[in-house]
Amino acid sequence: MVLKFAAASLAIFMSSAVFSAVTLTVPDEIKVLAVNDKEVFGNLLRSKDQFKVDAGVNTLQVRYQGYYQHADNSHDVLKSGVVSLQTPALQDGVSYKLALIDAPKDFDQAERYKDQPIIGLYDQNNKLIVQQAGAKNQKSWLANTFSDSSAVDLSTANKAVPAAQPAPVYYVQAESGAKRVDIKSAQDQQLIQAWQNATKVERQKFMSWLAEQSN
Predict the structure, then answer these.
(1) Residue 185: pLDDT band by 50, 70, 90 thresholds?
(2) How many CB atoms are closer than 10 A to CB 150?
(3) Pairing with 166, which of 3, 132, 155, 186 sits 20 to 30 Å away (CA)?
(4) In the predicted model, is pLDDT for residue 163 greater than 60?
(5) pLDDT of res. 187
(6) What is the average pLDDT across 119-133?
(7) Contacts for 202 with CB less than 8 Å, ≥ 6 apart
(8) Residues with Cβ within 8 Å of residue 191, at least 6 apart in sequence
(9) pTM for the whole thing?
(10) Number of neighbouring beta carbons within 10 Å of residue 110
(11) What percent of the chain has pLDDT over 90?
């Protein structure tokens, strides 16, 4: 168990590690703009409605986009601001999907929904593992960065999550069912789970190990 704690702690500092790919399915109503601050080309990382992303923790920049045809043959395309969603650690070889939570059923609902969409990430068993609401009335903070003509490296750009964006909600699967946990990051989630599953002796050993690392 001490080794598990050590591995979880070290994982926080290994964001640059290379991971195997997992499959992410995305509906038409959600547009993926970037993965880990790298712009997504429509013909490179996706095949129809599927993306390949690294296993492990990923940050997805997405937006809600709805197309509505009216009775007079006119149409509207509604777009939300960018929603930044940080996934928990995605498992190699497992399929996941994005979906709208409380999706609008008509144009009037969609006009309100675009002001603060809620994006959910589901595992291959259709269980919700994290949801992220957008910033209320947020303007597209990446609108001037993304274009259709060139790829953009956002590593040095302003990539902070908008202050108005609510904290993500992660769902931890337990024997008694899913429980809701509000935490700051997927790495925190891993450490919390390991700590909760540890015995008193294992926790003491881990604290001793941490003390040794600081020497």
Answers:
(1) low
(2) 8
(3) 155
(4) no
(5) 57
(6) 95
(7) 1, 2
(8) 5, 8, 9
(9) 0.63
(10) 20
(11) 40
Q: How many residues can be counted in the chain?
A: 215
Mean pLDDT of 28-57: 80
What CA–CA distance (Å, rounded) separates 49 from 35?
15
Lookup result for tokens 């001490």: 2
- The range of the structural domain enclosing residue 146 comes to 2-213
Question: Worst-scoring range by mean pLDDT, 85-94, 135-144, 185-194?
Answer: 135-144
114 token code pair = 């675009």
Instruction: Locate 56 and state its tokens.
Output: 């492990």
Q: Could you give the number of structural domains in the chain?
A: 1
Three-state secondary structure readout of the chain: CHHHHHHHHHHCCCCCCCCCEEEEECCCCEEEEEECCEECCCCCCEECCEEEEECECCEEEEEEEEEEECCCCCEEEEECCCEEEECCCECCCCEEEEEECCCCCCHHHHHHHCCCCEEEEECCCCCEEEEEECCCCCCCCCCCCCCCCCCCECCCCCCCCCCCCCCCEEEEEECCEEEEECCCCHHHHHHHHHHHHCCHHHHHHHHHHHHHHCC
Inter-residue long-range contacts of 110-119, CB under 8 Å, 24+ positions, other chains counted: 110/66, 110/68, 110/78, 111/78, 113/64, 113/66, 113/80, 114/64, 114/66, 114/78, 114/79, 114/80, 115/80, 116/80, 117/63, 117/64, 117/80, 117/83, 119/30, 119/62, 119/64, 119/83, 119/85
